Amino acid sequence: MGEKDQHVSTPPPVRVGALVPLTRPGWTEAGQHLLAGLRLAADEANAAGGIAGRPLELVVRDTAADPRRAAAAVEELAGLGVAALAGEYHSVVARVAADRADALGVPFLCSSAVLDALTERPARWVARLPPPQSRGWRTYADFLLGAGHRRVAVAAGPGVYWASGTRILRERLAPYGATLAALDVAALGPEGVCEELHARRATALLLLVGHPEPAVPLVRAVRRDRRLGGVTIGAPAGQPELASWAQLLGEDGAAVPFLRYLPERLGPLGARVGEALRGRLGEAPSFVAFEGYDTVAVLAAALRSHGADDRARTAAAWPHLSVEGTRGTIRFTRTPRTGVWQWAGAPVQVADRDPADPRSFRILHDGGAEAG
């Protein structure tokens, strides 16, 4: 081998920062699914030649559902020269990350956070895959109305995400004569919530709280209260999607309708990716894992077509992309009240775990996919 051959340089990687909740109090199970999707897509991008011959490298940072930790991670990753940022599950964390990314001029594709106003002001650097909370939760309210619910209660925890969800549900239900009562879980406890449900003659209780605490004790309390046998328990934020819900609650965790962002049927790409994710996770992949895969697939397409060394060109690519994702063709448009580039066509459905087999799911209501 000649001296010239010995000094053939390896092209530098294209680095993408990945923000993921991997430790408590973050929802670590969702974080693991998100990361599995991100990594699978990165591996497949590299198997297909990377980004113009350069390997795609994920630089992972744990946000632990802490906005301050996420802001520090964005600062660090920007300083490391990442081409773009990806990920995050928790809305309040993604909101801070999006604002910092926009201020620093780093493209950020948000994987799985739905709070409508993801940034404080219109942002040119930020795009998002999941539908805004207002669209998803209005779909959930439509499901409740279609099922005949007119007296709805929510067990609400503190925070802007839960408060926003309560407002969206109430505004959607009110024109149809349906009422929504907000119950303070911290003040009432599970038994107190049951008393309020009975007194108000509520037909549905929605869990707008964290998992496993206090969601799991609330479900157990309602299921064991004979007065509340006809009450539907719902979880629009999607807690029953992940395996720990069924592991902790068993049969009690079935028939709890929740929102998820999957089509009625996956196409060939989605089916193939789903099997690959199952192999990596050792369990059925959640919609969060598919969101992770689609995030890197979109970023890889943007970096290939618009260059990996110019962040401004990458951000300018948002409205020009058309990428075949696991859940449909991904295109970004501007939507009211979000402030970011949004995939308007993301699918929305209401599903639950089948009482006959809590490991499987039933689709109860298809919210469709808006044109986008």
What's the SSE blueprint?
Elements: H1 3-6, E1 14-20, H2 28-47, E2 56-62, H3 67-80, E3 84-87, H4 91-104, E4 108-110, E5 126-128, H5 133-146, E6 151-156, H6 160-173, E7 179-184, H7 185-200, E8 204-208, H8 215-224, E9 232-234, H9 243-249, E10 258-260, H10 268-281, H11 287-306, H12 311-316, E11 323-325, E12 328-330, E13 332-334, E14 341-343, E15 348-354, E16 357-368
Parallel strand pairs: 1-2, 1-3, 3-4, 4-5, 5-14, 6-7, 6-8, 8-9
Antiparallel strand pairs: 10-15, 11-12, 13-14, 15-16
Overall pLDDT, averaged? 95
**How many individual helices?**
12
Strand order of the largest sheet: 2-1-3-4-5-14-13
Q: In terms of structural class, how would the helical and strand content be classed?
A: alpha/beta
SSE sequence, one letter per element: HEHEHEHEEHEHEHEHEHEHHHEEEEEE
Summarize the main sheet: 7 strands, mixed
What's the end-to-end separation, in Å?
55 Å
Helix content range of the residues, please?
40-55%
Low-confidence stretches: none
Rg from C-alpha positions?
A: 21 Å
Assembly state (oligomeric): single chain
Strand content: 15-25%
* Quantity of strands, as a count: 16
